[in-house]
Amino acid sequence: QVQVVESGGGLVQPGGSLRLSCAASGTIFSIYNMGWYRQAPGNQRELVAGIIRGGRTNYADSVKGRFTISRDNVKNTVYLQMDSLKPEDTAVYYCNVDGRYYSSSGYQDFGSWGQGTQVTVSS
After folding, report:
1. Measured between alpha carbons, how far is 4 from 22 in angstroms, rounded to an integer?
2. Residue-wise pLDDT tens digits, 83-115
3. Could you tell me which of 10, 8, 2, 18 has the C-alpha nearest to residue 76?
4. Which residues are CB-contacts of 42 (< 8 A; sequence separation ≥ 6)?
5. How far is CA 46 from the centre of its chain?
6. What is the DSSP string of 68-109?
7. At 63, which helix (H) or strand (E)?
8. What is the dihedral of CA 96, 99, 103, 106, to 10 degrees?
């Protein structure tokens, strides 16, 4: 089994910064894609940023130039550095990780979500 835990959310003023972390743990063999999504009240969950194992990244247009995603393949952790935050960035941020893990049945693919962390941008 694989567990995914996010941390780093909170309240910040417009123009401020926050850094989110997401750590995957368990009998992990390999992690392929790691990504951050967000969901504001009344909205659908949307992709914010993603990163593949080789390091290639992609971003939502609304966060390009302000957010930076990175990963540590040794620690099975993905980060989201959020700068120049705006009130419209307020949402619950979720981490998603997919890859392969060991089980009693052999290797199996997984895709796991974290529990979410609240980010509020307000003066």
Report:
1. 7
2. 999 999 999 999 999 999 998 989 999 999 999
3. 2
4. none
5. 12
6. EEEEETTTTEEEEEE-S--GGG-EEEEEEEEEEEEETTEEEE
7. none
8. 160
Query: Tokens 């063999």 correspond to what residue?
Result: 29
Bridge pairing between strands 117-121 and 10-12: parallel
HSE at residue 44, side-chain half, CA atoms within 13 A, is 2
d(CA 37, CA 63): 12
Euclidean distance between CA atoms 121 and 72, whole angstroms: 27
- pLDDT tens for 33-56 read 999 999 999 999 999 999 999 899
Amino acid identity of 109? D
pLDDT per residue as tens digits for the range 52-83: 998 999 999 999 999 999 999 999 999 999 99
Q: Please report the sign of the dihedral spanned by the C-alpha atoms of residue 68, residue 70, residue 18, residue 38.
A: positive
